[in-house]
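Letters spell out the chain; backbone shape is given numerically. Take this protein:
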Amino acid sequence: MKENRDMQNKSLKNIRVLDLSRFIAGPFCGQVLGDLGADVVKIERADGGEEGRRIGEMVDGETLFFMGANRNKRSLTLDFRNPDGQALLRRLAAEADILVENFRPGTLEKMGCGYDVLSAENPGLILVRVSGFGQDGPMASHPCFDGAAQAHSGIMTLTGQADGPPTMAGVFVSDYSTALYASIAALAALQARQETGKGQVVEATLMDSALSMLTTAVGESKLLGVEPSRLGNRDRYLSPSHCFKSRDDKWVYVVAGNDHHFVRFCEAMGMPELAKDERFVTFFVRNANAEALEGIIDAWGLEHDAEEILTALHAVGVPCEPVASIADVVENPHLAHRGQIVDVPHPAGGTVPVPASAIKMSATPPGVHRGPPALGAHTREVLRDWLGVDDAEYEAIDATGCL
């Protein structure tokens, strides 16, 4: 894969993004914008770069953690504590369309780079602020990672087996949803700027993003005084919707909770009479009698291999899929057909497989045009491209110790 392939068919081909963030939510926001064609410059400390470069398994000197959220970016090193570095950051921000940061609230201001300062020089700048709890409020100063947001938002209370402890989701749902909200907000701000000519500050927080996924739980608590409980793999609203084990010791997830699907499901099981049983005739009573219904399905499932179950239920339009291992997922022919796992260039050579963008667009599709960058690999290049810095000025800047 060649870097900087033809970018003329990319949605954000003329947009410049400064990414000052680290870990997951901020970097993934920057990656989404980069996938859409923006020129994303990741600014990192020279002494080791962002913390994500040291988390998790390494492949040829780079972590999979870092490479999963930092493709389609260039890397520039900068010492934020150095006054010359702060001045250079202000120069870069004056040329940017979007700046993404996830420092503790107040940090950017202490660097002399608050939005009042940056927007005075660049009124069209969009500042995307990613944080745990927001820039103000009683919890603004609390440090936050995904697990803390899952815990404090109530997601962890709703996750896990009914008789088990509160449980984290298996992936960083607060981080990734925050990244998506931040990306949506940045794009909306770009559209607003088309009409007003002015940028703005947009916020996305882990806590707010996690809360947004609670859906009806908020109303149930405030209006009905109901505290939703953990239900394991059971759907909160429809039954049967659960994992069932097959005769060949595999798991199949079946979602047959609405009345039409349930009738078809009963027929596929060879038990059409279940659909007329007063305990199961509507989804309201099925929910009330979920344990009894699941016991019947458990017994049926153990009489059939997984492939038999899947074939029978797909034939009648009942949603069901096998519970896949990650090894199964990476070899999934449907995902291969849709190009959902791509190889990105590794800074040391070769490639690394990562999930592709989940966005599909017919005219301006996202894509991978650059692999995750080596630390500081594009410092001179970015200063030349964005600020017109020639070799002599570069040497003078470098002599200050801020790069």
In short: The chain has two domains: 16-213+333-399, 241-245+251-322. The chain has a mean pLDDT of 96. The radius of gyration is 25 Å. The chain has 18 helices and 13 strands.
